[in-house]
Every structure is written in structure tokens, then in C-alpha cells.
Specification:
This protein is an all-alpha fold. It is built from six helices and no strands. The chain has one domain. Its main location: membrane.
């Protein structure tokens, strides 16, 4: 049962990671940081250029880190922070549903936290023992 659980966690991380990479790529390449910063400024987001870079890099680099499973708790918190900012500055005023509502960013916020703190054994964090509880050594008595 544990391998199936870990496989589904990996699948979840890959899907969420790809979504964040897509949006980070859009900000860096498709729209460009200058365009994103201008849009952020119009939305009242503080330090729009810094915020645009921060958001784009969290989404792009964090998405890749999520997929391979490195720094999962930190990346999950950063995803939640970015999504909370998107909610506060843009989506909450539009209500829950689409278009423009906050259900999508709320889903990404929750998925980022849930998968970030429960990433499974198929991750670089698990390979390197990062964030894993130390297992007690069992001694064999003669």
C-alpha cells in the first residue's frame, strides 16, 4: 500500500509542478517580466518588479523542485504565499467561482501545502533524508 501512496503523491507533485512551471514560464517568457510587473502595478501589488520576479521564479523553479521532490516543505509554503497574494490582490473580490474567482488559486495553495509536507518516498528529499523522521535503529539481541 505504501508504494501506491508514494506513487500517487509523486503524480500529484508532477501535475502541480507542471502547472506552476507553466505559469512561471508565461511570466518570464510569454508576457515578460516587464509586462507582468506593469500588470502587477495596476493591480496594486507592492514592488511590482520585485514581486513579478519573485512570483515567476517561485513558480518556475519551485515547480521543477516540486517535481523532483527537493525542498518540498519550503516550496509548498512559497506556493501558498504566492497563491495567497494572488487571492488577496486579485481573486478574493471576485467570489469563489470562475471567471476570476479564487477556487483555482485556493486549490493550488492547498495542494502545494499538502504535497509539500507529505511528498512521499519518491523524492530527492527522501533520498537525502531531508525532512524525514530519523528511524530508530533496531538492535538485535543475542
Amino acid at each position: 500500500m505504501q508504494p501506491l501512496r508514494d506513487l500517487t503523491l509523486l503524480l500529484g507533485r508532477v501535475v502541480v509542478g507542471v502547472v506552476f512551471i507553466y505559469h512561471g514560464w508565461q511570466k518570464l517568457v510569454t508576457g515578460g517580466i516587464d509586462g507582468v510587473a506593469a500588470g502587477f502595478g495596476k493591480m496594486g501589488i507592492p514592488l511590482p518588479t520585485v514581486s513579478a520576479w519573485f512570483t515567476a521564479l517561485v513558480e518556475l523553479v519551485g515547480g521543477a523542485a516540486f517535481i523532483v521532490g527537493i525542498g518540498l516543505p519550503l516550496v509548498g509554503v512559497l506556493f501558498a504565499f504566492v497563491m495567497a497574494g494572488a487571492g488577496f490582490f486579485v481573486h478574493f473580490k471576485n467570489g469563489f467561482g470562475l471567471p476570476g474567482g479564487f477556487e483555482y488559486i485556493l486549490t493550488l495553495l492547498a495542494a502545494g501545502l499538502a504535497l509539500g509536507f507529505n511528498g512521499g518516498r519518491y523524492s530527492l528529499d527522501a533520498v537525502f533524508g531531508i525532512g524525514q523522521p530519523k528511524r530508530e535503529r533496531q538492535t538485535v539481541s543475542a
